[in-house]
Design brief:
This protein is mainly beta. The chain has two domains: 3-229, Sandwich (Protocatechuate 3,4-Dioxygenase, subunit A), CATH 2.60.130; 242-334, Sandwich (Immunoglobulin-like). Helices cover 6% and strands 37% of the residues. Strands 6-5-8-9-10 form a five-stranded mixed sheet. Strands 7-4-12-11 form a four-stranded mixed sheet, with no helix packed on it. A four-stranded antiparallel sheet has the order 16-15-18-19, with no helix packed on it. A hairpin with a 6-residue loop joins strand 11 and strand 12 (221-229). The longest helix has 10 residues, at 172-181. The two termini are 35 Å apart. 38% of the residues are buried.
C-alpha cells in the first residue's frame, strides 16, 4: 500500500456505549431497556463480536465493495444514520461493517473453528455518510455458525469520544429461502437458529431487522436499515476531532448535494500550506489540489470536477493543513445529485 492510502482519513475511534434506532420499524417487540426521545428509540449496544479489528488503522478498509472475491449471494447493504434529537440524517459519520463469510469464518484472526484467517481483511470496511445520512456497501449475504444466527456487525463513529455499536439480522424465512436456493454456495444449509433464540437478539431485535429485497439487475439482494445515534441531524456534525480545532475548521461543501460545481469552505487560525485530496467511494484517490502560503482567516476552494478531468460523483474531500504546529487532517463527504 502506498503512503497516500496509509495517510488517508486517520480518525481515532473509541467503543461507544449505546446504539440508537428509530421507531419506524414494523415489529413491536423492543429491548426492555429502550429509551425514547421524540420519534426515536435508544437501545443498548451489542457486543462487537470476535476481533472486530480497528478498521481505521489500515486505509485499505475505506471501500464500498468489501467482498475481496469472497463467494456468496451479492448483498447491497444501505444504512441510513439519523440523529436522536430530531431524527434527521447525520452526514460525515464513519460507519464500519464486518461479518463472517458464507461458511461462518471471520477475517483477521485464527483460533479454533476459525483457523487460517489471521492477516486477512475480507468482508470488512467503512464508508462516510452522505448528505442524506446514507452509506452503501457491496458485500455478500453472510452465512451462520453454531450458536449465532446470521448477522452483520456495524459501528457508527460520531466523534473520537462517542460511537454506537450494534448488529443487524434478517427475516428468517427470506434468509433461509436464499440459502436453500443456493446450496452449492451455502453448503451448511439453512440457518437453524431463529433470532429470538440467539443470545444477542433474544431480548428483542425489531429495530435491528434489515430488509431483504431481490435485485434483478445484480441477481442478489438489497438490504436497508435505519440507525439512530446521539446527535442532531441539522448540525451535520461528524468526525470533529479536538486536535484540529486550534488549527482550522472545515466546512461542508456548498451546494450539497451538487450537480456541476461546488465550493469547499474552511478557516485557518494561522498562516498555513494546505492540500485537498478527493477520494472516490471505492477508496481511490482521484485528485489533489495544493496551495501554499495561505493567510489566516476564511478560505474558499471552488471545484468543478469536469474541469479537473473527473466524472461528477459523490466523493470524500480531505483537507490537510501544515504549519509551524504540525500537520492536521479532516475529511467530509460531498454528495452528487439533486
Amino acid at each position: 500500500m502506498n503512503n497516500n492510502r496509509r495517510n488517508f482519513i486517520k480518525l481515532t475511534s473509541l467503543a461507544g456505549t449505546a446504539s440508537l434506532l428509530p421507531l419506524g420499524n414494523v415489529l413491536a417487540k423492543s429491548k426492555n431497556t429502550s429509551k425514547t426521545e421524540g420519534s426515536c428509540v435508544l437501545i443498548p449496544s451489542e457486543t462487537s463480536g470476535p476481533f472486530p479489528l480497528d478498521l481505521t488503522t489500515n486505509t485499505a478498509f475505506f471501500r464500498k465493495d468489501v467482498r475481496e472475491n469472497k463467494l456468496g449471494v451479492q448483498l447491497n447493504l444501505k444504512l441510513k444514520i439519523l440523529g436522536l434529537e430530531n431524527c434527521e440524517p447525520m452526514q460525515n459519520l464513519r460507519v464500519n461493517i464486518w461479518h463472517c463469510d458464507k461458511d461462518g469464518l471471520y477475517s483477521g484472526y485464527s483460533q479454533t473453528n476459525n483457523e487460517g484467517q489471521a492477516g486477512l481483511t475480507y468482508l470488512r470496511g467503512y464508508q462516510i455518510t452522505d448528505a442524506f445520512g446514507e452509506v452503501e456497501f457491496i458485500t455478500i449475504l453472510p452465512g451462520w455458525y453454531n450458536g449465532r444466527t446470521c448477522h452483520i456487525h456495524f459501528q457508527v463513529f460520531v466523534s473520537s469520544s462517542y460511537a454506537a455499536i450494534s448488529q443487524l439480522t434478517f427475516d428468517m424465512q427470506t434468509k433461509n429461502s436464499i440459502y436453500s436456493a443456493n446450496p452449492t454456495l451455502y453448503t451448511k444449509g439453512v440457518d437453524p437458529l431463529a433470532p429470538i433464540n440467539d443470545n444477542i437478539f433474544s431480548d428483542g431485535y425489531s429495530y435491528q431487522l434489515a430488509t431483504l429485497t431481490p435485485n434483478s439487475m445484480t441477481g442478489g439482494y438489497d438490504s436497508f436499515l435505519e440507525v439512530t445515534v446521539q446527535g442532531n441531524g441539522k448540525l451535520g456534525v461528524g468526525n470533529e476531532e479536538k486536535e484540529t480545532e486550534k488549527q482550522f475548521t472545515l466546512g461542508q461543501n456548498f451546494p450539497n448535494p451538487y450537480l456541476t460545481e461546488t465550493t469547499i469552505p474552511f478557516t485557518l487560525t494561522q498562516p498555513s500550506d494546505i492540500s485537498i485530496e478527493l477520494w472516490d467511494l471505492l477508496g481511490k484517490k482521484i485528485t489533489k489540489i495544493t496551495k501554499t502560503g495561505l493567510n489566516a482567516g476564511d478560505q474558499l476552494i471552488k471545484l468543478n470536477l469536469k474541469d479537473l478531468g473527473l466524472v461528477n460523483s459523490s466523493c470524500v474531500y480531505q483537507l490537510e493543513v501544515s504549519n509551524s504546529q504540525g500537520t492536521f487532517k479532516q475529511c467530509k463527504l460531498m454528495t452528487f445529485g439533486e
